[in-house]
What does this fold into?
Amino acid sequence: MSNVQRFGATGDGVTDDTEAIQHALRDGDGVLHFPPGSYRITEPIDVDLEKAGPTGIDGTSGTARILMDGSGPAFRLLGTHGGTGDPNSVKGNVYPGQRLPTITNIEIEGLHPEADGIQLVGTMQSVFEGVLIRRCRHGIHLFERNRNVLISHCHIYHNTGVGIFLDRINLHQINIASSHISYNRLGGIRIEGSQVRNLQITGNDIEYNNHAAHKTEPEPTAEIYVDTTAPGASVNEVTIASNTIQATSSAGGCNIRIHEAEGDDERPPGLWAISGNIIGSQENNVHLTGCYGISISGNCIYSCSNRNLLIEDSKQINVGNNTFRRHTPAMGTGVRIVRSTDITLNGCSILDEHPDGQPSGASLLELVNCNRINISGSQLIDGVPCGLDAVGCSNVNVNGCSIHETRTAQKSKHAVRFSGKGQSNLLAMNSISPATQESLSIAESSGVRVEGNVMDQPTE
It folds into this structure.
């Protein structure tokens, strides 16, 4: 391996080792090996893969640290791959000299306000494992075009920008797994202005990615933030599974935020599965705008200052077998669906445990100007003012649900309320309590048929 100290690097944390590392890259054997120590650099180490050939960067089991005391990325990996993930699109110069650039077991710390960790441009099958990036601007910055990226067992921690930033990029096949992505001011994983396919986010701890730890003014962000409002942007074929995704509530903040431009003719965010996650403690835990074809299942979604789940201007969203709740009196719970079509909510539990109701005063499940909504096999417990509150909706089918008030001193105004103009709505075969005159508030203009419901006190 090209031991950078043999090319003049000191690793004393004070001397500028930039030139020595560039020497090792230029004249070494393809592996930049950093023995234990702190290596201060003042400009990016650009790895031109077409010239350098296959390249690896190794930090000796995490004992080496790069101190980036200049603007830009500590390491910039530059390739020429312009094809797709299809092997037939890969030109002949890519696999012999550019495939599999690898950075392992090294720390990168920023000493400059515009220092970044790692940037990728035009790479094929890059790998990052055991990397710690902290006090930089962006941790791992993917730009322009890349293919087949693996990020695992990394710590992307306490950076002033984004932890993992997919920035105006064309990228297929990226796995982010078993990593700690936390305390990054502008988001944990952020995608903007990009065309992305085949993204897997699995088994990570993604927490507190907002302004709070940086003592700056809040701005809208999220642990996972996807913005496809730019022309031509789209993000599809995504799995978010088995992660812990938590935060502190911030203005405009979310745990998962997916946003498509209103009325955009491009392909909206879709073909997503969000399953088996712990998601909590933000203004909105999951906020979808302009999405199509998303499954949200088997999650525990808790404690919001606005909504656990907010869906706007979306269609074909399946919400199943989730637990919605709050775990502190200062926070709230609930689901709100607005101007959306073809939404199912089944097997879910929405529970407000506080004796005085929610701080926001919102009902547990709100439907506003929606069409073709199916709600089945769910529990809406202790909603204030209502368990289910529908305004201006049509073709809403509510069946097989338990909509109960369990407090000794009743706080619910109505179990179910339909208001505004609608048609072909059905409220059938539900268990509704307590059985008072106010339990159902159904406006004649809302077009609701009520049949076969059990109206009684809940069984203790």
Summary: The helical segments are 18-27, 49-52, 94-97. The chain has a mean pLDDT of 94.
